Structure formats: C-alpha cells, structure tokens
UniProtKB/TrEMBL annotation:
Pfam families: DPBB_1, Expansin_C
Source taxon at top rank: Eukaryota
Residue stretches spanning the membrane: none
Gene Ontology CC annotations of this record: membrane
Protein name: Expansin
N-terminal signal peptide: 1-24
Family stated for the protein in its record: Belongs to the expansin family. Expansin A subfamily.
Chain ranges of the Expansin-like CBD domain: 169-248
Subcellular location: Membrane; Secreted, Cell wall
Keyword set, alphabetical order: Cell wall, Cell wall biogenesis/degradation, Membrane, Secreted, Signal
Organism from which the protein derives: Carya illinoinensis (Pecan)
C-alpha cells in the first residue's frame, strides 16, 4: 500500500468511525405519560414561553420534561428521540421512535409516590407527551410506559425566529425554531447605535435586557449549547414593532 492509498484508507476509516459514533449515542431510561388535549396535541404555552406550539411548528411533538431534564428551562428547544421499551402489552411492536422538542415543564407532585402519580418528582426522568405523539410509540390505554431516550440534532425548516416584546425601557426576545442543538445558552442584541449587548435569560427561551432599541435595525448573536455562535444581522428593520416575529439565519 503506497502513501496515497494509506491516506485514503485512513480518511475513510475516520469518517466511518465518526458516522458510527453518531449513530451509537447512548440510550438512557425514563418514563412517559401523555396529556389529554381536545385535539390530541399539546397546544398550550408551556414553561418555555413558545405560545401556540402549532404556529411555531412544534405541534404534537412537544413534551414537558421533569425537573432534572428541564434544568430550569435551559433545555427548552432541545430534541429527544424517544421509544417505548420493555413492556409487551403497552409498547407498539418494533419499538418505533419519535422526535420530541422540549417545550414545557412537568412539575413534581411530592404528595404522591414517584411510582404512583409523582412521575415528575426529582430525580425522576420523565416525558409528558401529547396523546397523538404517545400513540405513535405505545397503546393509548397505558397510564405510564418505560421508555428510552437520547438527545438528537433538531431538524428545523427555515431560520431562527425572533419574537420581540417589551416597552421603551425593557427589551425581550423569544427565540424559537433553533436547529441542531435546539438549546440556546447565550444571546446578544445590537442596534445600529449600540455595540453588542449581552441578554439575560428571563424564563424558558425568553431573553431580556434594559435598553431602548426603537427606531433601530436589530441584529442578534445566538450561542447554542455546543458553543457554536450564529449572528443574524439586521433581522428587524428600523420600523419594527413589539409583538412582531422576524426570521434570521439557521445553524447548519
């Protein structure tokens, strides 16, 4: 084998190892239940602040996470692959999996035992799903099922979405539709008359700072949990209004 062949062989082996490593991410154990909604989906705002989940495309594949998974809202927007396992009566044949987005908090019920109603008690790992999504992995008549889950990359259509809120002294943005990590850990905002201003997490994926940016085009710099940073320049025009949503770039 000459030097060129050896180099090609090494590169192919390296790529193969990376692909296999991505596919063999560790599965963890948890439990899952579902919330009964009139249309089989979770459409309420939830603790991440996304509003109508159908309007921002999360829809029925949204989930409330127990305390340890929710991590005070830092995992809002993260994606999880979930499958029902180890229950011959309740799990669907072949253990099909679905991809869920973290959009809500499943609060603990310390008045009940963790194995009898206190599904989200600390340190239980639990997913509260929509009925429609639950029915894709398990029988609807099951109260609670054992599942396996793992973090996966989020596949999103379009760019990051920035919904602007606040007043003349208080500026807040809700960030949604985040690809890859799904999770936002830091945000900066910039007007045409300012430098980059760090924002603090208000709750969920709502970020805030005390600044008046009215009449200025607005740019955002978003950092994901992997450490990758994405800047979307002049996302909002100078005549933007509170309540409007604008689309920026997307993590790739």
């Amino acid at each position: 084998m000459d030097a060129l062949q050896a180099t090609v062989f090494f590169l192919v082996l390296l790529i193969s190892c990376e692909i296999n490593g991505a596919e063999d991410e560790e599965w963890k154990t948890a439990t899952a239940t579902y919330s009964k909604e009139t249309d089989g989906s979770i459409i309420t705002e939830g603790a991440c602040g996304y509003g109508d989940l159908h309007k921002i495309s999360y829809g029925k594949y949204s989930a409330g996470l127990s305390t340890i998974l929710f991590n005070r809202g830092s995992t809002c927007g993260a994606c999880y692959e979930v499958r029902c396992v180890d229950h011959i009566l309740w799990c669907l044949q072949g253990s099909p999996s679905i991809i869920l987005t973290a959009t809500d908090f499943c609060p603990p019920n310390n008045g009940l035992a963790a194995d009898y109603g206190g599904w989200c008690n600390f340190p239980k790992e639990h997913f509260e799903m929509s009925e429609a999504a639950f029915a894709e992995i398990a029988e609807r008549r099951a109260d609670i099922v054992p599942v396996q889950y793992r973090r996966v990359k989020c596949e999103r259509s379009g760019g990051l979405r920035f919904n602007l809120q606040g007043d003349s002294r208080f500026f807040q943005v809700l960030i949604a539709n985040v690809g890859l990590d799904g999770e936002v850990v830091a945000v900066k905002v910039k007007g045409s008359k300012t430098g980059w201003i760090p924002m603090g997490r208000n709750w969920g994926q709502n970020w805030q700072c005390n600044v008046n940016l009215k009449g200025q085009p607005i740019s955002f710099e978003v950092t994901a949990s992997s450490g990758r940073t994405l800047a979307s320049y002049n996302v909002a025009p100078p005549n933007w209004q509170f309540g409007q949503t604008f689309e920026g770039k997307q993590f790739k």
